[in-house]
Each structure stands twice: as C-alpha cells, then as structure tokens.
Amino acid sequence: MQIKHIIAANPADMARKAANMIAAQVLMKPKCVLGLATGSTPIGVYAELIRRCREGDISFRDVTSVNLDEYCNIPAFSKNSYRCYMEENLFTGIDIAPPSTFLPDGMAADFDEECRRYTELIDRMGGIDLQLLGIGMNGHIGFNEPADVFTMDTYRVALSKSTREANAVHFEDGMEGMPTHALTMGMRPIMQARRIVLVAGANKKDILEEALCGPVTPRVPASILQLHPRLSVVYSET
Ligand code: GLP
C-alpha cells in the first residue's frame, strides 16, 4: 500500500493541488481517459481546470471523460442531473469534445442493459488513466453505498437515506425530488484506474480516517482504496 497524503491549507489550495495532478496527467498523455466525479468538493477543482484551459496552459481536446454515476429517472437536461452538473461546472468551460464525455443514462428504458453498455464502454476505452473521487459521509465512492459485498461493475443502486438527505440540498425541491436510485460504476474500473486522486474537505476527516486506516470492508466502500497502488489523497484542513 502506498497512499500519498497531500495536505491542503484550505479548499482553494486543495482545488489547486488536485488540478495540478489532473493537468499533469493531461499534459503527459493528451489522449487520456479521465474518470470524473460530482458533489460539492470537486467544483473548485473544475473551476481551476477551466481557468488553466482558458489561459492556454492545458487542452482537453483529445481527452475522453467518463463519470462515476448518474441518478435514475432524472432527465439529462434537468438541473438536478449529474450531466447538467458536469456541463455547468466543467464541460462548457473547457475545450473537450462533447461526444467524448460520458455518463450513465439514468433515463434508459432497460437499466440492466445500460449498466452492461457502460461497463463495456469503459473497457473499450482501455480503462481510466486518472480517476477523480470524492467521498460520501458514509464512505461511499461514486454511489457505491455501504453493503455486504463490493460490487465490481456498473449497477443500479438504492441510495441510502443519509446519502439522499446529504444530496437533497442540491435539489430545488429537496427530498421531494430526490431519486431513490442511481446507476454507478462499480469498484473494478475505479480500482483499475492507473491513478486515483481523492479530494476531501475538513468535514470528511473522520470518515477519511476510517476508510484509510480501518479495515477494508464493503461497509466502508472507500476502504478498498487502501489496496490501490497509486492513490493520492488531497485533504483540506479547513
Ligand atoms: C455524491 C457523489 C459522490 C461524491 C459525494 C460527496 O454522492 N455521487 O461521487 O463523492 O456526493 O459529495 P460532496 O463532495 O458534496 O460531499
């Protein structure tokens, strides 16, 4: 196990440090596959990448992106969808080709089929070069919620009450409009990513410690990351 801990003084510093790693990945391999995450924590990272792209320091022209997850039964054009989050917080601000940005289709008629398609899609890309992750208060990554087993490939997951409550703050109609299910990448493509950058704010101190220093268990999904050979954790102290 080799975890690189990068302590950031504050959220802006965290965003800069995580963006440094993503930018380095893109510079090193312009035609790379980036695994992307949603939530509040990566927003500053994306803002930093947009700034660097606008200033001409990096280009995402040849990058392919693949997101961790999407809500079920929320149309892509809805403000609440992760597709919309990605468009607003990253894609429209950088020069990535829109057809090269992928998320699971939460409106698919057949979710099993969609999960298979997404798994195969990631495999066809040759896997992920760098996966950006956040962490949920209960230790979830993507939407891999605490469970009895680690699920390997894309699947439809029932969201836990605590996750729904935590994420309802981003929904205009709060818990009312909050979906019960999501499609999420499983642990295999995450663990096969050549490099992982996990960003976490000071509010995640306890769960981060449990995930990185406690036993590896599907009850704390992020604990599996202890087995990843190239994990960098960028933690903001404030
Ligand atoms: C959602 C996402 C996760 C993310 C988590 C934490 O549940 N599916 O990928 O890590 O939120 O989000 P935040 O950064 O807002 O705490």
Q: What's the average pLDDT?
A: 97
Q: How many alpha or pi helices?
A: 8
Category from helices, strands and their pairing? alpha/beta
**Helix share bin:** 25-40%
Any idea what the shape is?
Answer: globular
> Alpha-carbon distance between the termini?
27 Å
Strand content: 15-25%
Order of helices and strands: EHEHEEHEHEEHHEHEHE
Radius of gyration: 16 Å
Query: What can be said about the biggest beta sheet?
Result: 7 strands, parallel
**Which sequence of strands runs across the widest sheet?**
1-10-9-6-2-3-5
Uncertain segments are none
**Oligomeric state of the chains?**
single chain
Bound molecules: 2-amino-2-deoxy-6-O-phosphono-alpha-D-glucopyranose
Number of strands: 10
Give the helices and strands, then pairings.
Blueprint: E1 3-8, H1 11-28, E2 33-36, H2 43-54, E3 64-67, E4 69-71, H3 82-89, E5 101-102, H4 111-124, E6 130-133, E7 155-158, H5 161-168, H6 174-177, E8 181-184, H7 187-191, E9 195-200, H8 205-213, E10 231-236
Parallel strand pairs: 1-10, 2-3, 2-6, 3-5, 6-9, 9-10
Antiparallel strand pairs: 4-8, 7-8
Helix pairs in contact: 1-2
The chain binds 2-amino-2-deoxy-6-O-phosphono-alpha-D-glucopyranose (GLP).
2-amino-2-deoxy-6-O-phosphono-alpha-D-glucopyranose binds next to helix 5.
